[in-house]
Amino acid sequence: MTRSREFAAIILAAGQGTRMKSDKHKVLHPIAGRPMLDHLLGSVDTLGPARTIVVLGSGREQVEPLVGMHGGEVVVQEQQLGTGHAVRETGAALAGFTGDILILYGDTPLVEAATMARMLDRLHADDQPAVVVVASRPENPLQYGRIITGDDGTIAKMVEYKDASPEERAVNLCNSGLMAVRAEDMFALLARVGNDNAAGEYYLPDIVMLAASEGRKSVVIEAEPWEVAGVNSRAELAQVEAEWQRRRRLKAMADGVTLIAPDTVWFAHDTKIGRDTVIEPNVVFGPRVTIGEGVSIRAFSHIEGADVSARAEIGPYARLRPGAEIGEKAKVGNFVEVKKTKLGKGAKANHLTYLGDAEVGEGANIGAGTITCNYDGFFKYPTRIGAGAFIGSNSALVAPVTIGDNAMVGAGSVVTRDVGEGALAVARGEQAERPGWAARFRATMAEKKKAS
Ligand code: UD1
Ligand code: MG
């Protein structure tokens, strides 16, 4: 739907976030591996805002780079005198702006772009409300501000919990804090908001009553409680994370991915998974993972920054770290760690192995306990293993080193020099044999023991 007016998003994030008990700014705490504020800015971006303004107070230097990455601006609210005051502080930055304004909260990260669009569209519906407020009916309304509606569904009153009567507190329609207002209305109304209330703060919701006093109605649109859930503490952070994961799991399954035990699989914000992939219990995805179609990811695997091609098999108990590129039908088995390594089509590293800074050709077989020794304490070095090569168990490949195509390395080797194509390299102590030695040794020792 094309909107007739442009809009500015104002994201309030100047609060102290004291209940997080953190040195990290509250809005930078991650959900699914992505800062809360980044989720919100990402949703705003999809609607093409004319302006994005984030209101920040203390700790703003932590947040500024992220705002910049989204082409947003920072407005500083030195003293947190309330939500109304915070929005008023954007007045200078928005001087002359004549579009709509969306008010969002930095600590309410899961609001979807569709809901933001719904807010703007409702503002321009035929009845032309002054303010659109997003409300929800949470199971436990806690200390949320309450919204009292009249018979026609328009807002009769908005009241903060602290200021509310027992009857008002009994109402379960809660203010999420999100609003849509025309810029020209917003600043005219805000100029009249006072702080004569229980908290001594300038309340943003007061603009609704001020508009009503001019005979202009305001309306509510409802959202699901999870979508407008705020994060004030670590416990709430975990709840929002859980909700995000719940929805992501459903989406994965809807997209054709099998999750045997959905509740035990943890996705990152950008995990991509092809259809007919099967994910066993207790799998964790860190950021930047792409999984192809028909892949099998077995139990207890940890995967981040990795690309896995179609029909590969990962785990159980595998660890794929950033830069792992697993080819089609390749296998990474139990207790195998792969970092910055390309594993060719059909190559196998089935047991107890570390592959770092390596390239493994198609169809190569990496024996149990193989280690690429890629680090000398100062620099990292590459290992190249040719197509069809066979690395015997318990070998150490001391990088930089190249193993030619179809070459073999004897088990237990410490390989420090390149191995030619099709050659066998054995680099270990040669086996010696002394016939009868063990029997003689036992006999001598048994005698000694008897005599002692
Ligand atoms: C606010 C609403 C309440 C609503 C609740 C939803 C008001 C007066 N109350 O209450 O009706 O139910 O949110 O979560 O609006 N902030 C600033 N500067 C300030 C104060 C706040 O930037 O001076 C920011 C905070 O960082 C936060 C947001 O505004 O992102 C909300 O502030 P908060 O103090 O949490 O408001 P509540 O008391 O929860
Ligand atoms: Mg709050």
- What portion of the residues fall into strands of 2 or more residues? 25-35%
Kindly report the CATH topology of the largest domain. Answer: Spore Coat Polysaccharide Biosynthesis Protein SpsA, Chain A
Named CATH architecture of the largest domain:
Alpha-Beta Complex
What does the oligomeric state look like here? single chain
Q: Name the hetero compounds present.
A: uridine-diphosphate-N-acetylglucosamine, magnesium ion
Average pLDDT value? Answer: 97
Task: Give the domain tally.
Answer: 2
Helix segment tally: 9
Gyration radius, in Å:
31 Å
Looking at CATH, the homologous superfamily of the largest domain is: Spore Coat Polysaccharide Biosynthesis Protein SpsA, Chain A
Helix content: 10-25%
Low-confidence stretches: none
Largest sheet: 19 strands, parallel
Question: Can you describe this structure?
Answer:
The chain has 2 domains: 7-222, Spore Coat Polysaccharide Biosynthesis Protein SpsA, Chain A (Alpha-Beta Complex), CATH 3.90.550.10; 234-425, 3 Solenoid (UDP N-Acetylglucosamine Acyltransferase, domain 1), CATH 2.160.10. Helices cover 21% and strands 28% of the residues. It has 9 helices and 33 strands. The strands form 5 sheets. It has a 19-stranded parallel β-sheet that branches. Strands 5-4-1-6-10-7-11 form a 7-stranded mixed β-sheet, sandwiched between helices. Strands 26-29-32 form a 3-stranded parallel β-sheet, with no helix packed on it. The longest helix is centred in the middle third of the chain and has 21 residues, at 234-254. 41% of the residues are buried. The model has no long low-confidence stretch (mean pLDDT 97). Uridine-diphosphate-N-acetylglucosamine (UD1) is lined by residues 12-15, 55, 77, 80-83, 85-86, 105-107, 144-145, 160, 174-177, 203-205, 230.
